[in-house]
């Protein structure tokens, strides 16, 4: 049961994906997606999709997550549009063969890295930023010349509908398809062979994806989460820190993979931070955050129940209210939290911020290093040495000193996890590289046999010496071919 393109998948009438995947495979084999013009056309289509359906997307995001227009604009639509523009501006430069340095033995050859599309790639997107985390990888996959199967999250229903019904009209459907379904359908989809899988979601599902990929030796990029520590030094202005932390903890109602998950600070700093956090929350969301147009809601009942359970950990210092009729949870701060409590076992992914006390920087660093490597790590201090020490003595996917979130808005920086928070990265050129095979290429002269003959038997000490010298000596950058 091998189908054109070299993929071994169980074909048959029972398989809802077989026809689509075969069509995409055939397109890729035809070479259609490789020219820069074709890629640019797809990227422009993606840009038009965003421009012409901005209103529709904002409404869908409001339905799914009660996302404010501001947040939809900043963290979903504009950021995706910038990514498209960046890819369009740099496409040809990114696609260019990359010349590498040579030695004397290859001095007359042409040595370079060619960026080739993998072929048929699968993107599995999450529900928390259902536009951003779907389109950002898609930009990279299309820019790199792949055919793409996109699996948006079925949990963010309204956005899924727009992505499934409207987006394909803007792209060439011979190289792009949206597939729908929940865990069962995704499981079926993963039986198929892809050339790369890009997954954003939880570590638990990440393991399922990687296990399925292993059957076909398919490489994966896993954008997972984790509990992102936020160290707050005694040497800081509590109101500045509180503003920044509250902004990003409660952005998208805390349903953000890079949000600060918990604060580590001394009891003294906690005492100064609490009134500052209360003041920030009131300023941001008013006396009744429930009435604020700027505070979102929890995505579904299951997650709401999970989060409500976490409210009983430690002691509620700020907030703590919840209402399941509209899946509302107030911006909450918990204190007196023990490391063993449920709120410290899983990524919170909601508007709940526990504060844990440590005695000084060393204890904070120990605490961080005892746990899985997080996706993001934050340190606040007016002493740059403190920030640099946290950076030097810990590991995480990304790091941001004296703020949250902002490190992932720069497309010149790679975004991704390490250890349990994921593998591989993307954004900007890193996305293009993630979706490209870096092919080793050496074009040698058809002539020059006299020189090349030095490596053939019968061997002599002199030939060995010459050959080793030629291999160890860096050549000038001249190329004959
Ligand atoms: C650092 O100190 C300055 C001056 O006191 C203050 O304005 C600023 O908010 C402080 N920054 C932080 C992160 O604490």
TrEMBL record:
NAD recorded as keyword: yes
Claim: Nucleotidyltransferase is one of the keywords in the record: no
PROSITE patterns per UniProt: ALDEHYDE_DEHYDR_CYS, ALDEHYDE_DEHYDR_GLU
Domain (Aldehyde dehydrogenase) ranges: 25-439
GO molecular function, one term: 3-chloroallyl aldehyde dehydrogenase activity
GO cellular component terms listed in the entry, alphabetical order: cytoplasm
GO biological process, alphabetically ordered: aldehyde metabolic process
A family per Pfam: Aldedh
Coiled coil: none
Highest taxon in the source lineage: Eukaryota
Cross-referenced InterPro entries: Ald_DH/histidinol_DH, Ald_DH_C, Ald_DH_CS_CYS, Ald_DH_CS_GLU, Ald_DH_N, Aldehyde_DH_dom, Aldehyde_DH_NAD(P)
Active site: 223, 257
Keyword terms, alphabetized: NAD, Oxidoreductase
Family label: Belongs to the aldehyde dehydrogenase family.
Alphabetical list of PANTHER family matching this protein: ALDEHYDE DEHYDROGENASE, ALDEHYDE DEHYDROGENASE FAMILY 3 MEMBER B1
Protein name: Aldehyde dehydrogenase
């Amino acid at each position: 049961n091998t189908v054109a393109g070299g993929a071994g998948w169980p074909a048959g009438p029972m398989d809802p994906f077989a026809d689509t995947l075969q069509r995409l495979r055939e397109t890729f084999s035809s070479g259609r997606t490789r020219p820069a013009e074709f890629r640019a056309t797809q990227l422009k289509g993606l840009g038009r999709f965003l421009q012409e359906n901005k209103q529709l997307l904002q409404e869908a995001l409001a339905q799914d997550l009660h996302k404010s227009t501001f947040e939809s604009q900043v963290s979903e639509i504009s950021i995706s549009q910038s990514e498209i523009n960046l890819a369009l501006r740099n496409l040809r430069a990114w696609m260019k063969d990359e010349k590498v340095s040579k030695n004397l033995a290859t001095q007359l050859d042409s040595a370079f890295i060619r960026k080739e599309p993998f072929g048929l790639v699968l993107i599995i997107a999450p529900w928390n930023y259902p536009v951003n985390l779907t389109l950002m990888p898609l930009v990279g996959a299309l820019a790199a010349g792949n055919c793409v199967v996109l699996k948006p999250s079925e949990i963010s229903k309204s956005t899924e509908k727009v992505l499934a019904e409207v987006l394909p009209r803007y792209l060439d459907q011979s190289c792009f398809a949206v597939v729908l379904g929940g865990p069962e359908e995704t499981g079926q989809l993963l039986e198929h062979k892809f050339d790369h899988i890009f997954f954003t979601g939880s570590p638990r599902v990440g393991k399922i994806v990687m296990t399925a990929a292993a059957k076909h030796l398919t490489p994966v990029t896993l954008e997972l989460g984790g509990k992102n520590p936020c160290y707050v030094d005694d040497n800081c202005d509590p109101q500045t820190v509180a503003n920044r932390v509250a902004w990003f903890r409660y952005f998208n109602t805390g349903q953000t993979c890079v949000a600060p998950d918990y604060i580590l600070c001394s009891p003294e700093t906690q005492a100064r931070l609490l009134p500052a956090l209360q003041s920030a929350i009131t300023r941001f969301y008013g006396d009744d955050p429930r009435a604020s147009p700027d505070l979102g809601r929890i995505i579904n009942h299951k997650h709401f129940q999970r989060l409500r359970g976490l409210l009983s950990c430690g002691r509620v210092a700020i907030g703590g209210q919840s209402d399941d009729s509209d899946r509302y949870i107030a911006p909450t701060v918990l204190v007196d939290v023990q490391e063993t409590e449920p709120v410290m076992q899983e990524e919170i992914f909601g508007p709940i911020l526990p504060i844990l006390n440590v005695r000084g920087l060393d204890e904070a660093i120990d605490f961080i290093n005892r746990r899985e490597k997080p996706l993001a790590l934050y340190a606040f201090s007016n002493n740059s040495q403190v920030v640099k020490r946290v950076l030097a003595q810990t590991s995480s996917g990304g790091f941001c000193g004296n703020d949250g979130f902002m490190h992932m808005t720069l497309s010149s920086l790679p975004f991704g996890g390490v250890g349990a928070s994921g593998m591989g990265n993307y954004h900007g050129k890193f996305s293009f590289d993630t979706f490209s095979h870096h092919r080793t290429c050496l074009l040698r002269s058809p002539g020059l046999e006299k020189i090349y003959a030095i490596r053939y038997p019968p061997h002599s000490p002199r030939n060995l010496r010459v050959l080793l010298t030629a291999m160890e000596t860096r050549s000038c950058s001249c190329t004959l071919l």
